[in-house]
Amino acid sequence: MTTPQLLNSQEKQKESSISGGHITGKIIDAKSGEALEYASVALKKSAPVKGTLTNVTGLFVINQIPEGDYTLSVEFMGYNKKEFVLSIKGNIDLGTIPLEPSSKILGAATVEGVKSAKNINIEKSRINFDRTAGSATGNILNVLKSQPSVTVDNENNIYIRGNKNILLLIDGRPTTHTSLESIPTGNISHIEIITSPDAKYDSEGSGGIINIVSKTKLFEGKSLLARYSTDIHYCYNGGVDVSLNNGLWTFDMGINSKYDHEQTESNIIRELHSTGQKTWQNIISDKRTNLHSAYSTISYSRGKNQAGITLNGMIPNFHLEQDISGRETETGPETYSRHNSIWFNRKSFSGAGFYKRIFSPGKKELSFDISYSKTKGSRPANYTIDGVYSQRSWGGGSPNIFSFQSDYIKVTDSKIKVESGVKYTKRWNTFEYDFFKLDIPSNEWIKDISLSNDLTHKEQIFALYESFSGKLSDGFAFKAGLRAEYSTSLFRQYSTNDQSESSRLSLFPSVTFRYSLAEKNSLSLAYNRRVTRPAYPQLNPFVNIIDQVTSESGNKNLRQELTDKIEAAHEFSQGKITLNSSIYYSHTRDYIAQTTQITSDGKLMLSYTNIPSYNKV
Fold first, then answer.
1. 0.85 cut: is pTM over it?
2. Residues 6+ apart with CB under 8 A from 161
């Protein structure tokens, strides 16, 4: 009689003899102890046999190796090469492999500190999500609020160095999510705050880029992870992740749910200098968030070929209750009151696929990426003015983003890394908004044409780029590139049959230098150009009522703004201690500024206009 345990053991031995052994290990910087991502690991006999690249935590695995003698070569730009002679008769774990830096090459890799929650250089700051205190709440905003370069205001607008024109990416791809609150956090590996993007990145976001990077799986086997977290502010977050990996195929899937209850109170004092009129306003808000999401990823990796597909679905729902009251004197009676009850009901879907061909690990590769993201939502709202339910509205839209990108990387014989690529992006959105007022004598809801509108906004961007990076001498590294974008825009309002179109060719240079003064000090200098294209709410000329004394209207004649930014930084590093200091200057042409005008009835009208230039230090 054969026991189930013996059968299981025999099956494993048979599988091992068929698939061969595997080699695992972890590559780190010998001085800082930080993991090295994208380090090249190649297995050779008289010729290359197999190869791979390390992941974000420096880990690598080479599977299905026949028995025999091999040479394992580990290389990473800017570090001394290391080789091992191995005899494969089964599985080998090489443990931690430290590489000695020969000089620091800027932009060649992104590193993750094993013991640090944050890594900083002149191009970007990297926040390791699981190691931050705010990650327990499942709210990305709580994590970003703790970063010195990031500010989050009362309306959850995000500013990088005082600029809220930021580009949001998920795994380097554009998304229709406009709010970080609606993004599930269970599968987040780290967040990149990119303040000096190079030519490979999209040119949008004069304030910078926030890139949310998902976790990746490496080792063979099965795993199940269940998580739950809460805090004292009525926030609950939980989910389940499943991973299967047989060495060639990897399948990941997960679900996540979140409930958050947030209550805030704010006070605003407005003073019109032209008339001397003052208004004291009090706002009490009660916001409840319900978020449900699911994802699945299938990836394939064998030899020099990698491919994968990722699907994400999300249902974020928000309910906001607001009580707004105003007084004409600080201690006087209320002159008006308003209660807003607003629902944000959304359904989001995104999908992405990629293929990468690694001709020579760490030296030559070609990749293709395609992605699509769509959010369909509605925004019903009820408004009670001075105790009378007299206004209501309904809005709905469906933003879409499609992109295709191809990138080619080659390291020349002179150790210069050349990156080239093309990208096509298309965005389109159809938006409807109906506003109704109650006719009290007839008790009928009448549509207010002046506050209702429907529109379509379409945009296409054709881009190509090329960049070079390497070292000019010992201790002196550089990265320089140029990106060209041709963009077209169409804005159409159906209610007025008004249409405007524009097209523009723009160039976006970027250059970064890094000089190592000594073993512990380095200086960096970076320059880049960014663009902020007006969003459709800024273009829409119809009036949107914010409160009893404030309204907002867009400007369909807005032009894009161009920002040139230069930054200098110093880094001191000794052991586990790293000190960073920087100074930057930016010059913006056709800066999109918010304007305030007083209407004939003494209320405020907010709008937008271009001003010739804006400088910031």
1. no
2. 149, 195, 207, 208, 584
